């Protein structure tokens, strides 16, 4: 006789949800204490939606956390959940979310992560059991600074400002567009002055 892979949820005990995001998949393990052990009562593997797949990695972790909390609550029935993630979810959401999330999505995430009495978030750098759920090529660092990583990878040049230079020699205006036509990504950009075109260019497919 062997013990089952999953135990039955005990609604008299709190739950622990371990969350991990890899390759646009939200991976999770829902567990409860059984003596000194953590016994799994649920495994989760959910695709992120198309919008959140394009976000920086730490914001994808925020989306994965929200998605799996909603899935876990189908089993926990209002019992307390301690959510363990290897990212500073609240800090990333509050400081970077406004640059990537729509107002409605931002509000939804804040409600689920901050305003539910049964949810408590904990950032941990220890080995997360959700990391062992199978995907292809599970290669990534366990520890990093979420805000610093997002700034370095996705921010524009630090010398660019949101205010124009005083007394410039030349004023340039730029714009770009991107769309999919017959399954092919099309993108381009333009640089103009107030009276003429300076540069019009189409990007190669490999750069789109």
From TrEMBL:
Keywords: Endonuclease, Hydrolase, Nuclease, Nucleotidyltransferase, RNA-directed DNA polymerase, Transferase
SUPFAM superfamilies with a match to the protein in the record: DNA/RNA polymerases
InterPro entries: DNA/RNA_pol_sf (IPR043502), RNaseH_sf (IPR036397), RT_RNaseH (IPR041373), Viral_Replic_Matur_Polypro (IPR051320)
One GO molecular-function entry: RNA-directed DNA polymerase activity
Reverse transcriptase RNase H-like domain sequence ranges: 10-114
UniProt xrefs under Pfam families: RT_RNaseH
Protein name: Reverse transcriptase RNase H-like domain-containing protein
Source organism of this protein record: Grus japonensis
């Amino acid at each position: 006789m062997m013990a089952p892979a999953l135990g039955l949820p005990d609604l008299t005990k709190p739950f622990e949800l371990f969350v991990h995001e890899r390759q646009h998949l939200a991976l999770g393990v829902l567990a409860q204490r059984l003596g000194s052990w953590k016994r799994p009562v649920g495994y989760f593997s959910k695709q992120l939606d198309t919008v959140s797949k394009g976000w920086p990695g730490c914001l994808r972790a925020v989306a994965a956390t929200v998605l799996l909390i909603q899935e876990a609550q189908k089993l926990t029935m209002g019992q307390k959940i301690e959510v363990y993630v290897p990212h500073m979810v609240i800090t990333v959401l509050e400081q970077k979310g406004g640059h990537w999330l729509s107002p409605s999505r931002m509000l939804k995430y804040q409600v689920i992560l901050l305003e539910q009495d049964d949810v408590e978030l904990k950032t941990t750098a220890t080995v997360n059991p959700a990391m062992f759920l199978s995907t292809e090529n599970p290669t990534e660092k366990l520890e990093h600074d979420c805000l610093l990583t997002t700034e370095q990878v996705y921010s524009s040049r630090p010398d660019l400002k949101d205010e124009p230079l005083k007394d410039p020699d030349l004023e340039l205006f730029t714009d770009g567009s991107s769309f999919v036509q017959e399954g092919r990504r099309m993108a381009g950009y333009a640089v103009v002055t107030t009276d003429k075109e300076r540069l019009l260019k189409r990007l190669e497919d490999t750069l789109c």
